[in-house]
Amino acid sequence: MDLQYSEIPTAEEAAHMVDLLNTLSLFSRKTMLEWLPELLSELNMTNERMMVMFELHLQPEISLKKLAQSMMVAPSTMSVMINSLVEQGVVTRLPDAKDRRRVVLRLSEKGRRETEQTEEGLVKGFQKYLKGLTETDRRELAESAEKLLAVVKRIMNREEI
Fold first, then answer.
1. Within 10 Å of residue 59's Cβ, how many Cβ atoms?
2. Residue 116 and residue 105: Cα distance in Å, rounded?
3. What is the CATH number of domain 11-130?
4. How far, in Å, CA of 158 to CA of 89, rounded?
5. Which residues contact 125 (CB under 8 A, 6 or more apart)?
6. Contacts by 80-84, CB closer than 8 A, 24 or more apart
7. For the chain, which residues make up each domain, given as ranges?
8. pTM, whole model, 2 decimals?
9. Residues in a beta bridge with 94
10. In the structure, what pLDDT confidence band is assigned to residue 81 with cuts at 50, 70 and 90?
């Protein structure tokens, strides 16, 4: 699609961007759904547990409220999940260094080890998936993803998402 870009984004540009991001999200979910259930079964882990732990890995020292927003669940639902993860020793609650009244969440050492183990399994699964792509497709996918990631990081730094 040949869009005209200008100083002020058009509705057409925004719609195109939404389509692109939705397609990338669908690709990510579909590829992981092919082998993620087997990995989670091997690790005796639920999908919800994995998602919370990866979110805490990506956003250490996040509040319960922000974590719930990030994962699009109610704070009460997130609170139940976090209580369980704290009891299992994979998440810790800490006072915020900047505001002692505020509590932040962080993976414990046990939680970091579990997350690393899960990530290793994800890498192995994705390696099998990549075998079905040509070298050129893998290179183009990586180069495009790196460019997209650079822009996304600039957006996230600007907006503190």
1. 16
2. 18
3. 1.10.10.10
4. 34
5. 32, 34, 35, 36, 39
6. 81/48, 81/49, 81/52, 82/52
7. 11-130
8. 0.75
9. 104
10. very high
